[in-house]
């Protein structure tokens, strides 16, 4: 009888440990001309919180030398789409968490929409994104003449942004923003239609920091990790 009870306790312990150890895979999508290493603060904090490197996906997309050449069409899409698909395949929960920074926010959102996987995204976090456009890009079709600001870019009212607006992105959605963001607020105006451009439709909460565009990514790692728990 004691042996049976001991075996039962071991079985229950293994179930409990497995449940505790099982985490959503995480996809970290960097911004325009950045690299996966821009996520090092978040990546290392995830590791210290029990994630394994095999549960964290950091796609590397776009030109590193020509910011105006990158948009949301073609070669920029592929690494992000592959990372989301790979994360879903690897996740022991069947769900993923997605965190994007800057143009990585809109790229990640686009691929979630195209793949129709929002029901498998537990948490989506958009950091310093321009989901409503950048005034520095102008208003489509009278936009700045570059890929980044064009049809598939971040000009206000671009066909790309208009098509993305309202798409479901996950079960829980959060934005992290700043009113001194030197990219989103480059013209001195952060809002489009009275709403901060980094805010996401139907979001659960939005967090404002007194940080620059890049500090929002590197200096909010603790919040990012807390939001996906």
From TrEMBL:
Lineage: Bacteria, Pseudomonadati, Pseudomonadota, Gammaproteobacteria, Alteromonadales
Listed GO biological process terms: lipid catabolic process
Signal listed as a keyword: yes
Signal peptide (from-to): 1-21
KW Signal (keyword) present: yes
Name of this protein: Lipase (Class 2)
Molecular function via GO: lipase activity
SUPFAM superfamilies assigned: alpha/beta-Hydrolases
Keywords: Signal
PANTHER family for this protein: FASTING INDUCED LIPASE, LIPASE
